[in-house]
User: Fold this.
Amino acid sequence: MDSLVQGYELFRAEVFPQQRPLFEKLATGQQPEALFLTCSDSRVVPDMILQTRPGDLFICRNAGNIVPPYGEMLGGVSATIEYAVCVLKVPHIIICGHSDCGAMKAVADGSHLDGMPNVAAWLRYTDSAKQLVEYSLPLHATPHERLRAMIRANVVQQLGHLRTHPSVAARLQRGEIVLHGWNYDIAHGTLEAFDATQGRFVVLERQRIPKALEWLPLEL
Ligand SMILES: [Zn+2]
Assistant:
């Protein structure tokens, strides 16, 4: 705990004074560039990976970067999405998984989650990704390959759930929001992004930022 309070003291003594104008500007409002939905894992630090500042990202975190489908569970994730889309009008939503994810390991291994009924219920939102992986990977796939596939398939499944949220569906129809599915590699510090046109994850670079959904508005 000492190190946490020491960090706060450093923030008060050096960081805050240096960035006072930014904090003063942010004191009365925010206009983040994206809703960033990622795992609670301590090794995933969005502001470090993207070099963003306070006010840039509206962040929602939970075990396994999961988005329950609309109506299934009226909880914090649904409310956060609704607020980001309807009030803050974020133009982008990024779902970001990561390597060595404990939640995805539990799913991929078929771990018994006795004594953790909430974790078990929560991870059921990854069931179709799990089944997709089981049906697609060769039987001799290694645990590492299985986990890697699970992490990616989960990001894609959660993107699907995102579209069931009415606020998101409406903005997609009007071309006001773009969905992104990313995966962060902790050991290498790299991001890959799901490219819906290719059906696979590709290197993320500014010259070509892949969309996780090729959306054609419904003709009405
Ligand atoms: Zn994780």
